């Protein structure tokens, strides 16, 4: 009996250890809209490579999660003294892709269609989301990028950690995984923050995002 109790305790300890080791995406600090960063005469312009750039996303329920990607429509960054000074990019919401369901399965097209309709991103009326840089700062040894994120015509300023690398005439901006509260952009479908009696069918408010944007000197 003692041996069985000990075995259960070991299993529970292992489960808790694995769970605690999973890195949860930190929610981006969200504040009111700020003025876009100004472009200086001495800055160097880089144009986003749409084919090489990608935004990864994860949406979750208590019982499952889905993940995929979104592409850019366009983008530009201005660097000064090898640091991002200003910039903006458009996100092509019609390009949203689901990766965890095989592309030839009915469930894939069904989920993509749902994400594009008025319950979520309302792509027919809001073809692009947008991000404009408002500032760059340093915190705890990390580079923090701040900017106005516009989704469905609603704009908030968010701040999240990034790394910037340069090689020859190319610059790559990569963010850490971070999350945003979708309800702040009026995406409330399935949110228990707004609807009752959803049981375990609710969809979590936070969407995890990870940016990898490649730009070339113009």
Q: Can you offer a commentary on this structure?
A:
- The protein has 218 residues and is mainly beta.
- 14% of the residues lie in helices and 49% in strands.
- The chain has helices spanning 2-21, 106-116, and strands at 26-27, 29-31, 44-48, 54-60, 65-80, 83-98, 128-139, 142-151, 154-167, 170-175, 178-181, 206-217.
- The model is unreliable at 2-22 (pLDDT under 50).
**Taking all residues together, what is the mean pLDDT?**
90
Could you tell me the radius of gyration in angstroms? 20 Å
Individual helix count: 2
Q: In terms of structural class, how would the helical and strand content be classed?
A: mainly beta
SSE run: HEEEEEEHEEEEEE
Distance between the termini: 72 Å
What level of helicity do the residues show? 10-25%
Question: TL;DR?
Answer:
By secondary structure, this protein is mainly beta. Helix content is 14%, strand content 49%. Strands 1, 2, 3, 4, 5, 6, 7, 8, 9, 10, 11 and 12 form a twelve-stranded mixed beta sheet that branches.
């Amino acid at each position: 009996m003692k041996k069985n109790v000990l075995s259960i305790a070991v299993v529970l300890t292992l489960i808790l250890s694995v769970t605690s080791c999973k890195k949860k995406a930190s929610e981006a600090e969200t504040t009111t809209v700020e003025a876009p960063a100004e472009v200086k005469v001495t800055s160097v312009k880089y144009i986003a490579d749409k084919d090489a750039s990608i935004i990864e996303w994860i949406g979750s329920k208590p019982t499952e999660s889905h993940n995929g990607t979104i592409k850019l429509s366009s983008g530009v960054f201005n660097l000064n003294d090898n640091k991002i000074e200003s910039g903006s990019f458009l996100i092509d919401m019609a390009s949203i892709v689901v990766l965890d369901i095989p592309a030839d399965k009915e469930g894939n097209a069904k989920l993509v269609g749902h994400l594009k309709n008025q319950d979520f991103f309302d792509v027919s009326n809001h073809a692009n989301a947008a991000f404009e840089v408002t500032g760059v700062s340093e915190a705890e040894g990390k580079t923090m990028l701040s900017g106005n994120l516009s989704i469905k015509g609603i704009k908030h300023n968010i701040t999240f950690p990034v790394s910037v690398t340069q090689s020859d005439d190319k610059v790559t901006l990569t963010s850490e995984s971070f999350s945003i509260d979708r309800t702040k952009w009026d995406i409330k479908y399935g949110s228990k923050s707004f609807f009752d009696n959803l049981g375990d069918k609710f969809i979590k408010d936070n969407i995890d995002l990870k940016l990898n944007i490649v730009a070339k000197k113009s």
